[in-house]
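Design job #97: recover the sequence.
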């Protein structure tokens, strides 16, 4: 793949769309929050091949079982994502060497996927320590409300992309306004991250695909057709077809078919794909240590971080913050959100095949401990919140615990505990875990643990 980077003073073309969000959240009923009502279940063994043969050693894991499990997740859960496009265009659109009162260097980079400066594109906002010496390790996380929401800095480009309406966040007619700036600062302690010697990079997830069932029409999934041989091939076939479509047709008919394909990627796949494209860019940015990129995601973006980290081994550490169902939590427990519930509320997140497992969790050939195992031997951190029962904290802990045999096979330690720890007592070795006081959110406490975890695994001083 070729990446061309250039610097320009302005943004590319802007497409302003106005769509209203359909009511996605039906009120959940019959939710199980009772441990006594968790059914008995048997987890598929990550170290037994589909043909019943045990995985004898690290080599067999690497060559046979890991690809097998990855394929199972592609086929039944998230769908198959395409490889990187042959050409990425990365354009540095702004640099401020005196950001945050002189503490940081801030830059913005627009990444285009077709070789042309056309949408969909994603904007990466990057903060680096001002006294930067050599490439620095970076936390990468997608955000829910636009890059401008993580800091009140007026120099950050205000996102033009579709957003879920939210008066409090100043999102009007599905678009951000000046009032939207800095509305999510609580989740992004930029100064603390920089003080600890890390950079922070973030991307608005809606740049890859706006989060509603028809959102794919404005996102990267619309770049593909169902006839394209998506998995791990190239964009070349697509590029030819796409250039034809530029002169006729809306492109929508074909993409409807793409969404119908049983194992075609869903929105989580599209967001995860964007994270890998950010990594493609980091590999060309001399300020970023691309070998030490820590992927962090909250909730649906925690599911995304785990799926991106499972597929793309360039991510050094993966962190799941309250990712719950379809993320770190075991589906078979049917505690809190279930497969049926998530597929009903968010029909666009997973592949169509996943719907077969609505109320049939035991038929699924994987469970989420195997997603965590795909990250092995790289460090992974799973975090829960005590009041976030919808995400099933115990199910998240048990998934981390049941990934341990794979870490051991690869010569790493795992969690180091057998029982779920009490609140605010982080545990772990190569797999980290905590359940903190409070609700579904990302807090300073969470970040503190992630910074300590990264320090420990990067050998950067004592946590
Ligand atoms: C919830 C959803 C969860 C989680 C969360 C979020 O409504 O049921 O799976 O992803 O949204 O992303 O905030």
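Job complete. Output follows.
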């Amino acid at each position: 793949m070729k990446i061309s980077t250039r610097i320009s003073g302005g943004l590319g073309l802007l497409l302003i769309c106005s769509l209203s969000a359909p009511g996605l959240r039906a009120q959940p009923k019959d939710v199980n929050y009772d441990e006594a009502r968790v059914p008995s279940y048997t987890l598929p063994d990550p170290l037994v091949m589909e043909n019943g043969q045990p995985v004898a050693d690290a080599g067999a894991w690497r060559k046979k079982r890991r690809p097998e499990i990855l394929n199972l997740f592609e086929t039944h859960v998230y769908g198959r994502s395409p490889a990187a496009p042959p050409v990425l265009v990365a354009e540095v659109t702004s640099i401020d060497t005196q950001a945050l009162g002189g503490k940081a260097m801030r830059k913005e980079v627009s990444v285009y996927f077709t070789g042309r400066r056309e949408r969909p594109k994603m904007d990466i906002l990057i903060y680096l320590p001002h006294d930067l010496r050599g490439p620095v390790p970076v936390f990468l996380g997608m955000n829910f409300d636009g890059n401008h929401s993580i800091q009140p800095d007026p120099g950050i480009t205000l996102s033009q992309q579709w957003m879920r309406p939210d008066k409090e966040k100043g999102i009007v007619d599905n678009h951000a306004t000046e009032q939207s700036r800095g509305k999510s600062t609580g989740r992004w302690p930029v100064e603390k991250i920089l003080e600890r010697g890390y950079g922070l990079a973030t991307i608005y997830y809606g740049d890859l695909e706006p989060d509603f069932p028809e959102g794919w029409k404005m996102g990267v999934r619309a770049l593909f057709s169902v006839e394209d041989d998506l998995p791990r091939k190239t964009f070349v076939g697509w590029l030819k077809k796409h250039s034809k479509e530029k002169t006729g047709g809306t492109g929508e008919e074909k993409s409807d078919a793409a969404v119908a394909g049983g194992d075609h990627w869903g929105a989580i796949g599209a967001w995860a794909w964007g994270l890998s494209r950010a990594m493609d860019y980091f590999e060309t940015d001399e300020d970023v240590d691309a070998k030490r990129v820590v992927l962090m995601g909250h909730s649906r973006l925690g599911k995304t971080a785990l799926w991106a980290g499972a597929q793309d081994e360039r991510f050094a550490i993966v962190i799941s913050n309250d990712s719950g169902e379809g993320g770190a939590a075991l589906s078979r427990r049917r505690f809190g959100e279930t497969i049926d519930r998530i597929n009903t509320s968010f029909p666009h997140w997973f592949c169509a095949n996943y719907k077969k497992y609505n109320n049939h969790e035991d038929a699924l050939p994987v469970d989420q401990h195997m997603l965590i195992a795909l990250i092995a031997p790289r460090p992974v951190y799973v975090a829960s919140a005590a009041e976030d029962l919808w995400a099933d904290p115990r199910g998240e802990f048990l998934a981390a615990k049941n990934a341990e045999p794979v870490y051991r096979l690869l010569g790493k330690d795992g969690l180091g505990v057998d029982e779920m720890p009490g609140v605010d007592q982080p545990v772990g070795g190569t797999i980290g875990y905590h359940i903190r006081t409070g609700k579904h959110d990302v807090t300073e406490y969470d970040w503190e643990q992630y910074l300590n975890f990264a320090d420990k695994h990067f050998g950067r001083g004592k946590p």
